[in-house]
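A favour, since you know our structure tokens better than I do. Would you make up a two-line entry for one protein for me to read? Write everything out right here, beneath this request.
=====
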Amino acid sequence: MKELTAAQAALRAEHAAVYGYGVVGGRIGEDRKSEVRECYEAHRARRDALRRTIRSLGGEPEPAAAAYALPFAVPDSEAAVRLAAQLEDRVAGVYADLVRAGEGARRRAAADALREAAVRSVRWKGSGVAFPGLTELGAGDSPASPSGAPSGSSAPGTL
């Protein structure tokens, strides 16, 4: 059950990332448009894989929200880069939770997704952290959000 809960949280984060990269793509400078497309496609692929995983665990994949509240205004390319980095950090957080909850091949897939999100975050920010996916815990946050969702996840409709 823990693995299914963590997989649903990862799916919610991937839904939010797909939406968020739509916003990023509309504001980012031309020099980084191809990078946005690559990230968008990577998150779509992970989202689709998570849907299959959730079904294999006996669950019904949660649908995407119609829209997501942005954590801050994104009026320009600089803000779009910050949003992309934040999306990747949040995705890394939920995959860290899925690594803890998973087993076997699903655990390895979650670890791969965590690594990929951490690498994308570094590309957007220009720097990284020692333990990607755990930065939220180091910033004084509790391991669970007020909704009881895993540490890196967002409530539906939020990025």
Notes: The mean pLDDT is 86. The chain is about 65% helix and 0% strand.
